[in-house]
Amino acid sequence: MLISPELRFLLLREDRALALLFGGYAVEWPGGTLVVNERVPAGRFNFVQDVRLGPGRILAFVEKALEHYYQRALRPTFELPPDPPQPGTVRALAEAGYLPLGPHRSRTLLLREGGELPPSDARYRVRPASEEEHGTFLGFLAEPRYQMELNRYLEEDVFHPHPGERTVPYLAWRGTDPVAVALFHEAGPVRGIHIVATDPRYRGQRAASTLVTEVLRAEAGSSPGPCALFREGPGVPRPLRELGFRDVLSFETYGLPDRRPSPGKAP
User: Are strands 227-232 and 107-112 parallel, antiparallel or unpaired?
Assistant: First the structure.
């Protein structure tokens, strides 16, 4: 779906906000933006965003980008918009060992611009995570060895935000069990819902869709305006389509196969 250059810029900025909230940074180069987070060495926090390279500049960009990550022992992913095709970039990535990760690892940016919300599933309770529950929230996001560092950033984001910025971690509960999480972030005209994750035992039981519905409902009054949701996988799942989300940007993801050694370490 066609969107304005201004909206595209805002969506991409909000997409990389997740990595920046937890101590990362972004480096904007002609041809793509490097999103880097040395504290969370995972693809969602270390990726080259919106790669669009012209002939004659491909090899230099790929080599320079990889050098930036490899010097920090990070394995980035590269996100290429499917249109227009970039066969030269795909070949350069393949020569560096980067292959398409398949539809299930593609990236889709969804947008909701208002409308009525359907009823939620009454089996779930959704509310912002208390300070004591930040550890529970982060348990859905990262391995235990990273959680102490990430909790420090989360507390700064929630309790000491930058002017005009707001971050709210949400938890969905079923009885006494935390079953799903989402991170709401606002720093401009486009707000974002990040890292929607569900306990595997509750997948397919409307936990995530109820969580997103209640986040939208809770934030509608204080944060009017379009809301983006960022997910892995193609298209718009039916529960999100029923909430009014539409697919506005998509990217094919390229990464190193898992069998390759980590950069900066001997095989």
Answer: antiparallel
- Supply the pLDDT for residue 262: 46
Q: Are strands 77-80 and 47-49 parallel, antiparallel or unpaired?
A: parallel
Q: Give buried/exposed letters for 106-129 (b at 16+ CB in 10 A, else e).
A: bbbbbbbeeeebeebbeebebeeb
HSE toward the beta carbon, residue 24, CA cutoff 13 A: 28
What's the pLDDT at 42? 81
Q: Which of 52, 55, 15 is nearest to 35 (CA)?
A: 15
The DSSP annotation for the chain comes to ----HHHHHHHHHHHTHHHHHTT-EEEEETTEEEEE-TTS-SGGGSEEES----TTSHHHHHHHHHHHHHTTT---EEEE-SSS--HHHHHHHHHTT-EE--GGG-EEEEEE-----PPPPTT-EEEEPPGGGHHHHHHTTS-HHHHHHHHHHHHHHHHSPPTT-EEEEEEEEETTEEEEEEEEEESSSSEEEEEEEE-GGGTTTTHHHHHHHHHHHHHTTTS-S-EEEEEESSS--HHHHHTT-EEEEEEEEEE--TTSPPTTS--
* CB neighbour class for 163 (10 Å; exposed up to 12, middle 13-18, buried from 19): exposed
Q: How far apart are CA 160 and CA 155, in angstroms?
A: 7
Q: Global pTM?
A: 0.91
pLDDT at position 158 is: 97
- Weakest-pLDDT range from 173-182, 191-200, 216-225: 216-225
Between CA 68 and CA 71, with CA 69 as vertex, the angle to 5 degrees is 75
